[in-house]
């Protein structure tokens, strides 16, 4: 390998996972910004997903209550 060729490595201070826009708006100071922001953004996204899919979840739960678990006869436990 030629010693003049740049190496393909990531600087140690660069985040491996980019911080979502929602996380950056949390306002947590210092190095914990990414951790706190990711957790807060994840919680909001989870709540939004549950809200958006509430009808489908209720429908699936009603199906299982009426018919039981699909393929349950093949379960060995």
What oligomeric arrangement do these chains adopt?
single chain
Global morphology: elongated
Structural class by SSE content: mainly alpha
Question: What series of H and E elements makes up the topology?
Answer: HHH
Distance between the amino and carboxyl termini: 56 Å
Task: Using the CA coordinates, give the radius of gyration.
Answer: 23 Å
Helix content: 40-55%
User: How many helix segments?
Assistant: 3
Strand fraction? under 5%
* Rounded average pLDDT: 75
What kind of sheet is the major sheet? none
List segments where confidence is low: pLDDT < 50 over at least 5 consecutive residues.
none
E-strand count: 0
Molecular structure report:
The chain has 77 residues and is mainly α. The protein is elongated and about 65 Å long. The termini are far apart. The chain has helices at residues 21-24, 33-52, 54-67.
């Amino acid at each position: 390998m030629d010693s003049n060729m740049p190496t393909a490595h990531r600087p140690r201070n660069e985040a491996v996972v980019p911080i979502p826009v929602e996380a950056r708006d949390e306002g947590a100071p210092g190095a914990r910004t990414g951790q706190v922001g990711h957790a807060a953004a994840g919680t909001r996204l989870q709540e939004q997903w549950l809200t958006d899919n509430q009808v489908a979840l209720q429908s699936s739960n009603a199906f299982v209550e009426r018919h039981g678990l699909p393929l349950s006869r093949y379960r060995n436990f």
